[in-house]
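Practice problem: predict the structure.
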Amino acid sequence: MRVGIEEDLDTRADIAVRGVRVDAPVQRSKGAGPSDDGHLVVDGANATLPLNDDSPYEVRDGRIHRGTVDLGLSVTPVARPRFYDLSTSDGVPYRKIALLHGKDVLATTVVQTCVRYVEDQRCRFCTIEESLRAGSTVAAKTPQQLAEVAEAAVRLDGVRQMVMTTGTTAGPDRGARHLVRCVRAVLDAVPGLPIQVQIEPPGDLGVLTELRDAGATSIGIHVESLDDDVRRRWMPGKSTVPLAEYEAAWAEAVRVFGRNRVSTYLLIGLGEHPDDLVEGAGRLIDMGVYPFVVPMRPMLGTLARRDGATAPPPSLVADVTSRVAALLRAAGMTGADQEAGCAACGACGLLSAAGG
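Answer:
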């Protein structure tokens, strides 16, 4: 018999934090955003789950088991994409330009360096430059390289959307205008491909219109927390951008891209009171911004991991996720409606499983 929604979410939250034992051909370690994860399809939806040999959960015969108990969740590891075997016309392996996320999302960090990556400024959950130091990517991707990889990924592997993020640059646009060029080049090669761009609030909000005019479908302007004390502790460099700048950027992005075409990450487990986190998510929803709540998982190479930080309790992840999902349902907002981006993919969180 199928478990109820709340029990199902509790189980999924436990798996999201504690991980699984499985052979996952597509996985990440290091980079911008959640990693140290295997990419799977769970009950037909994208999921990125920590690969943990000590997890009580194991994938056997296409199902997740805990001991002898079949939890009723079907699992298919994402197959290694064919475009990983190719190189660009200037000799760079495609997988150093962009990676497959989930079964059908192409993701790239167009600039793999960040002005905030010095230790006293660095976001404590981020490893954006570690993949560069490991030689698994290149510092800056050109529009032409991205267009070439995107065309192959769509043609060979059925990619249906693309995410372009960037490390923050020293210019007043904080890297946004390079994304404008990259979006245009990709859409020249693959017309109609939904693309999400991800930036910090730019000094000139007019660049948001440039991104939309270039063809970007949606935008992520990621704050991670709405609590200034938490921001200063976890994101010392990024916290120097006042929340008022984020609010102005979100408002303008909603005007330019439309309601529920703008999103922001909110991380569960940074020390913010859950009621405050949910209340803040509600304010974002009222603005037309999708709050993508996900558990903070301290990855290898992060300052958080070095300093002994741990992932939040699964019960907290389930509680916050279920409450934010209820607010999203009441507002008629779903991640899928974004068409491209982290919320549309949904793999790194549980909102889609909770009906958001």
